[in-house]
Design goal:
Length: about 210
């Protein structure tokens, strides 16, 4: 991933927080049929291995499983907040006009070799973890146990688990770090005016605090 020093994020705890906050990732593999990519929600066990372990499940009918069963490296791309940045938000536009549009975003890329898991107990554990991760924000959280046991068992028969011990991980936080403070403030104001509580604006606030 192209990542100039100003945008590079290497702190493992920050990368893990981004994965937990935005767990729907693009799973990319290359196999006999070429490149395959699917959006898959992941759970992260941050205390496993050196860099953490990603877990997910796919439908058994998913043709990408053929790639995953081979000894191949998988790329998992987590996309965080993103937003178009208008040059009109920069105070420097009024000073010299030497500004152009850009796009701010947060991205984490993790790589590792997937292991296929068909064990029903493991699959149930992963489903429970993923459901709990997302349902915790609901007023009345739903649990897998709320569904009939025989129905859950039938659904588990249609999926296959994957586990990826992260071998490499890198992050890119493109949040106007290469601009003067006045322009950063202008971007935050512009984003907040367009989207109240803009996630990208909040990232910029957070980044300013963490680098202070």
């Amino acid at each position: 991933m192209y990542s100039p020093p100003a945008f590079r994020e290497d702190r493992i705890e920050i990368l893990h927080k981004a994965i937990a906050a935005y767990p729907l990732a693009m799973l990319v593999t290359s196999g006999a049929s070429g490149i395959s990519a699917n959006l898959i929600p992941f759970t992260l066990q941050s205390d496993a291995g050196e860099l953490g372990v990603l877990r997910a499940h796919l439908a058994k009918a998913n043709s990408q499983l053929a790639d995953l069963r081979g000894d191949v490296e998988a790329l998992v791309i987590f996309q965080g907040p993103q937003a178009y940045v208008s040059p009109s938000w920069y105070p420097t536009k009024r000073l010299h006009g030497k500004v152009v549009p850009t796009w701010n975003y947060v991205m984490v890329q993790a790589r590792g070799r997937p292991v296929i898991i068909d064990d029903p107990d493991w699959l149930r554990m992963q489903i429970d973890a993923l459901t709990g991760q997302q349902e915790q924000y609901q007023p009345e959280p739903w649990s897998v146990n709320d569904a009939p046991a025989d129905y859950v068992d039938s659904q588990l028969k249609g999926i296959t688990g994957i586990e990826i011990a992260i071998e490499r991980i890198e992050g890119k936080w493109k949040a106007s770090q290469n601009h003067p403070a006045s322009n950063k403030a202008g971007v935050v104001d512009g984003l907040m005016a367009q989207h109240l509580g803009s996630p990208m604006a909040l990232v910029m606030y957070s980044l300013a605090d963490s680098k202070a």
